[in-house]
Amino acid sequence: GSAINAFASEVVAIGGGISKAAEFFLPSCVTQAKRVAVPSLWKNTRVQTAERLEDAALIGALALAREALGK
Length: 71
Fold this sequence. Notes:
This protein is 55% helix and 11% strand. By secondary structure, it is mainly α.
């Protein structure tokens, strides 16, 4: 919730090894995030496991670099 408030993220992707256990923790994380997030920001946010787990860190770094370069 706090990260959603700070970054107004459209997608919060859970990656890495922990995402393999998402079925055990993701529902409660979503409930907590919804409770803490600003409602107008929450309604535009999706929480999910990363689709390409093996490349998640690289793809995220690339996205940040592109944003920093204005592309």
